[in-house]
Amino acid sequence: MRIQMGMKAKAAFITIGAIITVANSLSNASAQTSGGDLVTVMRADPKGLIPAFPHGGDTRIIAAKIFEGLISYSTDLRPLPGLAKSWEISSDGLTYTFKLQNGVHWNDGKEFSSADVLFSLNEMLPATNAAAKQALEEVKSIEAPDAETVVITLKRRVPYFLMLFPGQQMPIMPKHIYEGTDYIKNPANLMPIGTGPFELVEWKRGSYVRLEKNENYWKKPEPYLDSITYRIMPDASSRAIALESGDVNVATSGELSSSDIARFKTSGEFRMDSKGWEYFASQALLVINVRNHVLQDARFRQALSYALDKRFILDHVWNGTGAISTGPVSHSIPFYTDKISSYSFDPKKASALLDEIGLRAGADDKRLDAQGNPITVKLLILPGEPYGRLAEYIREAWRGIGIATDLQAVDLGNWYDRMANWNFDVAIANLGQFADPGIGARSYYHSGNIKKGVMFSNMGGYKNGDVDALFDQASLEMDPERRGEIYHQIQQKIVTDAPAIWLIDLERFTVSQKNVHNLVTDAFGPWGSWASAYIE
C-alpha cells in the first residue's frame, strides 16, 4: 500500500494521512491467534445500534465494531487511517482530500465508494444527528471526483476539523440502504449493514447482543476473533463475579463498581489498561437545568457547588481513581487550564449565597421560597454504580445547607429520554470531551446547540452571548497559543455562571483476562473496532 507523506511543493499540499501501524501489524500477525469467542458485559440493552442516531455510549461501543469512519486516532491523538487510507490538507487549510481504501464492501456484499461518504456527510448525518450537523456547519461543499476520492471544501479554516471524522463521531452509512427512506424507521436499523470487522447476528433483548466476524472484511487478516457477545447484566456485582469466574473475558470500568476496580488493580490477576479513553476523556458532573425555578439564579447554582466536597467524592465514591474536575474541560485534553477560580468545599459560603438570594431558613432549617414553600431539587440519577452512592451523598450535603433533594432513579432509556427532553432539575451525567473543546464543551455549552429531544446537546439550556462568541472565535483560530487563551477565557466564564457542577475527570480502565490481547490499539479502547483483538 502506497501512502503519500510530507510536503508537495508544487501543489503546496500538506499530507497528513499515513498508515503508521501497518508494518508492525503485519510483522506481528503470525503471533496473533485467529478464532475465539470473546464475551463482555453491558449493564443494559443499548437504545439502538445505529451510530448515526445520538443514542449514547452503549450504542457507540457496539456500533464501532460494525461501522467505520474515515479516520481513527492513536492513544496520543495522532490521526490514523480508517476508510480513508490517506488525506491531504491544502496550504490554505480549506480543502481536505481523502483517498479511500480499495476493496471495501458493506457486509451485504455491496461495494463501498465515495458515494456513501457523500450521502452520509451531506444527507443522513445532518438529518439525524444535531452534533454532526453543527460540526459540518463550516463545510462549503463535499464532492467526489471519482469512486475513491472525497474532497471537502470549507468556508473557513477549522482547527479541529480532522477530529470530527472517527466512526464513533461521524460514521459512514450505506447509501444503498438508507437513501430515500425514513431513516428512523428503516428495517436495517435492526440488522445493521456496515463495513466494519464484525456484523450483528442476534440481539436478544435483556440477554445479549452477539456479533460475528465479517468474513469479507477489507483489512486482512483481521478480525481475529470469531465473535463478540455482549451479555446484558444489570447488577454490577454480578458483572464483577462473571469476570472473576472467567465467564466473561472483558469489562470496562463503566460496567464495574469503583470498589471492584480498586480491588482488581491490586490483585494482579487481570490486565488493567488505562489507555484507550483519550478521545472521549469523560467527566462525571451534574448538569443543571437553568430554566427551572431557583436554578435560574447563578448564585443558587454556585451554592449547590460550594456545598459539595469533591475530595470526599473522589476518595469515597470513586475510591481515589480519577482527578477532581475544575470546569468544563477535562485535564486530560488540550487547552485545559487550572488557572481559573473554581468552587472549593465551603458550606458557609453556600449558606451565605442562599441568604443573599433571600431564601430564608424555616424552623426546621429548610430553605423557603418567596411563598414560604420548602425548596426541593429533583436529582435525576444516571443508572449504575457509583452514581447511586453519589446521589445519596449529594442529598446529605445539600440537606446541610437547607435544600431538600428528591432522588429520581430511572433505567437508562428513561434517563436518555428525560435528559434530551429537559425533564430534570439537576442530573448526574457522564459526558465525553471528544478530544477538543470545540467538539465536546461547545456541544454542551453553546446556546446554538439547545435542541429539545437531542441527546448530548446543550441539555441544561445555558446561554451566555459572550461564551457563544468566544466558542465561535476559537473554532476558527488556527494559532494554538491564541486558541488556548480563548478556551481559558471560556472555561472561567462558564465556571462563574455555574450551569453545571463538574465533579471528577474520570480515569477509566479496560479490564480483561490476561489471555486477551490487543483490545486497546487506539484512542477509543472499548469503543474501538477490536479488529486486532485476539485470545491466546
From TrEMBL:
A single BP term in Gene Ontology: peptide transport
GO molecular function: peptide transmembrane transporter activity
InterPro entries hit by this protein: Peptide/Ni-bd (IPR030678), SBP_5 (IPR039424), SBP_5_dom (IPR000914)
GO cellular component, one term: ATP-binding cassette (ABC) transporter complex
Keyword vocabulary terms for this entry: Signal
Pfam families reported in the protein's UniProt record: SBP_bac_5 (PF00496)
Residue ranges constituting the Solute-binding protein family domain according to the UniProt record: 79-450
Main location (coarse class): periplasm
UniProt keyword annotation of Signal present: yes
Compartment list: Periplasm
Family named by the database record: Belongs to the bacterial solute-binding protein 5 family.
Protein name: Extracellular solute-binding protein, family 5
